[in-house]
UniProtKB/TrEMBL annotation:
Keyword entries, A-Z: Iron, Metal-binding, Oxidoreductase
Keyword Metal-binding applies: yes
Record-linked Pfam families: 2OG-FeII_Oxy (PF03171), DIOX_N (PF14226)
Lineage top rank: taxon: Eukaryota
High-level lineage: Eukaryota, Viridiplantae, Streptophyta, Embryophyta, Tracheophyta
Gene3D superfamilies membership: B-lactam Antibiotic, Isopenicillin N Synthase, Chain (2.60.120.330)
Name of this protein: Fe2OG dioxygenase domain-containing protein
GO MF annotation list: metal ion binding; oxidoreductase activity
Family from the record: Belongs to the iron/ascorbate-dependent oxidoreductase family.
Residue span, Fe2OG dioxygenase domain: 211-311
Amino acid sequence: MAGSPVATVVPPLAQSVQEMSMNGNEPPPQYFLKENSIQPMDSFLPSDPIPIIDISLLSSSSSLSSKGGEEEELQKLKSALTSWGCFQAVGHGISSSFLDKVREVGKQFFALPVEEKQKYSRATDGIEGYGNEPILSENQVLDWSYRLLLRLQPVDQRKLQLWPENPNEFREVLDEYGTKVKIIMDVLFKAMAMSLNLEENSFSSQFGERAVMQTRFNFYLSCPRPDLVLGFKPHSDGSGITVLLQNKEVEGLQVFKDDKWFRVPVIPHALVVNLGDQMQIMSNGIFKSAIHRVVSNSERMRISVAMFNEPEPDKEIGPVDGLIDEKRPRLYRNVKNYAYFNFECFLKGLVPLESAKI
Ligand code: OGA
Ligand code: NI
């Protein structure tokens, strides 16, 4: 993100997650959760279903092949986003074989020798590239994972030197996947606006000509202490929206709702859609930015691919006028460059969505 200083202020740990995972070593305390341990998943996580939404029913432009049911699906969308802040999207038009290909190139990259992956390493003061999460403070509880973060849009901001050339299809597949996900996101922005009886471009127009699209390949290695260590700590995404492709076999993602963690079951052909903080702001708090985490697994590794869409950093965003009235006064002030704002809040130990409140 332009102007997002990310400095690694803490020296790297003696052993990498990869080494510890391969050797079956106990994770060091920097990885332990502070508050409490993680109970065995099934004992406390009701498998209440995360809503499933058929995107093909949402798009009014698909009325050529109108299947009907648009109004009903819009209501489902609204209800999913006001209560969960996330849902599983089916009918999105991306073939299962292409989704497999996206998973496969990620897996192949991750399976490369460390030296090969390190050609694409994140710079100590950067956010893009391959590596562990940036370590910003001594107290940070560390995630048992690696990431590969890349910016896809604006296209002239791509740092191609960080885009893997091995496997050789990687760049092409990522580029194509980005284009396909963008189409889905555009349908969703319109549908979200329509579900709230707004003009269909009420959200999309806030993203600007040079909206940002980034991807993060997450690699979760097996971890000998899934009771103490998370793959990804609880967070909400700073994005507008996030589209997440889950691993086909290994579950791990959980969403927080009503003071409980809910599993997000694997549906191989579905995409998980998470609403991000910036859409919570634009919707004046009507839609929820989902708090989510990833638990670790003692036996199996897991890969996921997240696509984040964010407004142009220099553009101010704020609650849509049509969502502010006497009954629901303006909840948030206008903000810009949310990635930077998020980062500053993190350093100060503040919750960005709270700090953005009026
Ligand atoms: C993320 C994220 C979840 C997952 O990348 O922001 O929440 O299942 N990923 O990997
Ligand atoms: Ni996330």
